[in-house]
Amino acid sequence: xxxxxxxxxxxxxxxxxxxxxxxxxxxxxxxxxxxxxxxxxxxxxxxxxxxxxxxxxxxxxxxxxxxxxxxxxxxxxxxxxxxxxxxxxxxxxxxxxxxxxxxxxxxxxxxxxxxxxxxxxxxxxxxxxxxxxxxxxxxxxxxxxxxxxxxxxxxxxxxxxxxxxxxxxxxxxxx
Length: 175
Prior knowledge:
By secondary structure, the chain is of the alpha+beta class. Helices cover 26% and strands 34% of the residues.
């Protein structure tokens, strides 16, 4: 099942889940497999219409399409460069928890925005999206493989976890 929500693995009877940010449930086994990289992108049409986005001030002036979880309550976005973090006030025009809505909105020229590298490699390669402020990345999100207590774990779940973690660590966009 692919679902964009927090699940209760025990109550909902799931064997294994990939979750962003450290899960709160204490009865889970949590195995970090990497950090999800995010970059800022826009469509060429959007940049043609609003002009280049080459500074933090300019980024603050344009419409942003963004995920609901990576902004602060004050509508700031944390950008990183060589370990230093900077918070930038932005103007969200669309907030959603659906990655495909974000990508489609960005490709359609509705704004600039942060996206996961693993989700837009094809769009970057063929020029439907271009990177803006390329020397910066959005603060990464830790990703975890989570599963209920090992005491009741079926062998196939253990084997799946041991198989999938190295594969996930080799995906472009996961550090």
